[in-house]
Amino acid sequence: EVLRPGGRMAFTVVALSPGLSTEETVRATEGGPEFVESTVAYTELLEQTGWRILEYRDLTSECARLCRQLSKSDQEREEELLSAIRQDGFEERPAVWQSRLDGIAEGLLRREFFILFNWNTICASLISNKLCVRGYFVGKCLSKDDINIRVSMVI
Fold first, then answer.
1. DSSP annotation of 134
2. Does the reported pTM lie above 0.85?
């Protein structure tokens, strides 16, 4: 286990926007980072694996601003980058930043931020149908739905 019982996790991800056509999905996949293509939305994947989303934010506009800043920085520090990543790696960077910006501008890509809580970590704290959160007895639980209600009130 990575989290202690009741622990939280936060991360960001660049993902395909929902509802894209086949053609749009191809363009987004080509313009996005490696492994951007997924047939299932991150929210679904997280919920299927026991994670509860405590907070979600769309950081797409911030991502576009960062891509523009990084592209500008690449141009300003060309000599340093060339010595660090060589000509081959440097030549493709402007196209990478531009395709990422195009994907965002066209609504094909988005950057998402999640704060999560995993039900599997709290289930370890269930003993004899009693729910303990952070060491405190919360009450007798009859089902996972009961846990959802009780934990929502406690957290």
1. T
2. no
Give the whole-angstrom CA distance, residue 3 versus residue 125.
13
Residue with the two structure tokens 């891509």? 67
Could you tell me if 147 and 5 are in contact, meaning their C-beta atoms sit under 8 angstroms apart?
A: no
List the 51-58 sheet strands across, edge first: 8-16, 109-118, 51-58
- Paired with 40 in beta bridges are none
Q: Which amino acid appears at position 93 of this protein?
A: R
C-alpha to C-alpha distance for 119 and 52, rounded to whole angstroms: 7
Looking at the DSSP assignment, which residues form a beta bridge with residue 14? 111
> Could you give the CA distance from residue 154 to residue 63 in angstroms, rounded to a whole number?
34
Distance (Å, whole) CA 153 – CA 134: 13
DSSP letter string, 29-89: HHHS-TT---SS-HHHHHHHTTEEEEEEEE-HHHHHHHHHHHHHHHHHTHHHHHHHHHHHH
Residue 15 class from Cβ within 10 Å (0-12 exposed, 13-18 middle, 19+ buried)?
buried
How far is Cα of residue 48 from the mean position of the Cα atoms in its chain? 15
Contact partners, residue 147, CB within 8 Å, separation at least 6: 119, 122, 123, 126, 131, 141
Q: pLDDT of 125-154, one tens digit each?
A: 444 444 444 444 444 444 444 444 444 444
